[in-house]
């Protein structure tokens, strides 16, 4: 029993961190903003641009000092956003899939350890899960860093033809997705390394068990 607890303690801890990182990745892909742009415009003051939606803060045309409620619009096929948005969507979806695979492989590994099967090769499950976590970490960190770099150097943004505002923003600020993406990445990377090392150290049970009739 103590050996079983020792073998599954690290994977159980990793499961908790993977669950947290998956939640963060889903949030920054579908809910949170990546870019916050401020405009000197009589109609709109601020735009929050994410990967699946964008929001803006309009002004009242009759009273410019009055700011109306925030309006959010979901991106769909009719809005052809530039390639950096589409590519970021694909990379973040891939990272989420990698994290989900790591979660599944870790769970399979824990089940195999608990079954204590003779010569059960449970350690490859943890190794594969660790590799998936590390790859997911690299993808998330690369995606958020790349977007942050593009915005910090004022990279030209090719607006869709039917976008509500085509002006160049006065100020470009970092959205909440960037620090949360970095957090998710640093949650995954050490846990992936730890799980990979743990899987390499484990060995299947080679003891001879009596046959049951």
Q: Examine the coordinates and then state which fold CATH places here, giving the name of the CATH topology.
A: Butyryl-CoA Dehydrogenase, subunit A, domain 3
How do the helices and strands follow one another from N- to C-terminus?
Answer: HEEEEEHHEH
Structural category: alpha+beta
- In the predicted model, the low-confidence regions spanning at least 5 consecutive residues are 206-213
What oligomeric assembly is this protein in? single chain
List how many beta strands DSSP finds: 6
Percent helix: 40-55%
| CATH architecture descriptor text | Up-down Bundle
**Nearest-integer average pLDDT:** 79
CATH top level assignment: Mainly Alpha
What about the largest sheet? 6 strands, antiparallel
Broad shape: elongated
> How far apart are the first and last residues' alpha carbons, in Å?
24 Å
Q: Beta-strand percentage?
A: 15-25%
Describe this structure in words.
The protein has 213 residues and is an alpha+beta fold. The chain has a single domain (2-201), classed as Butyryl-CoA Dehydrogenase, subunit A, domain 3 (Up-down Bundle), CATH 1.20.140. It is 55% helix and 16% strand. It is built from four helices and six strands. Strands 1, 2, 3, 4, 5 and 6 form a six-stranded antiparallel β-sheet that branches. β2 and β3 (53-60) form a beta hairpin. α3 runs antiparallel to α4 (177-201). The longest helix is centred in the middle third of the chain and has 33 residues, at 83-115. The radius of gyration is 23 Å and the shape is elongated. The two termini are 24 Å apart.
């Amino acid at each position: 029993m103590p050996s079983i607890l020792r073998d599954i303690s690290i994977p159980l801890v990793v499961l908790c961190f993977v669950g947290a990182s998956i939640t963060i990745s889903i949030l920054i892909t579908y809910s949170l903003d990546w870019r916050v742009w401020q405009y000197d415009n009589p109609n709109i003051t601020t735009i929050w641009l994410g990967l699946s939606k964008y929001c803006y803060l309009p002004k009242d045309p009759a009273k410019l000092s009055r700011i109306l409620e925030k309006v959010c619009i979901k991106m769909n096929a009719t809005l052809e956003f530039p390639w950096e948005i589409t590519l970021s969507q694909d990379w973040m979806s891939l990272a989420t899939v990698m994290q989900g695979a790591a979660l599944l492989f870790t769970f399979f590994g824990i089940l195999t350890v608990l079954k204590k099967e003779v010569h059960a090769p449970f350690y490859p499950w943890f190794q594969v899960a660790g590799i998936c976590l590390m790859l997911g970490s690299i993808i998330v960190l690369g995606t958020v860093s790349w977007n942050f770099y593009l915005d910090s150097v004022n990279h030209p943004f090719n607006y869709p033809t039917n976008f509500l505002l085509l002006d160049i923003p006065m100020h470009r600020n970092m959205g909440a997705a960037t620090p949360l993406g970095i957090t998710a990445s640093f949650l995954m990377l050490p846990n992936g390394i730890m799980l990979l090392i743990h899987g390499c150290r484990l060995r299947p049970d080679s003891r001879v068990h009596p046959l049951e009739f």
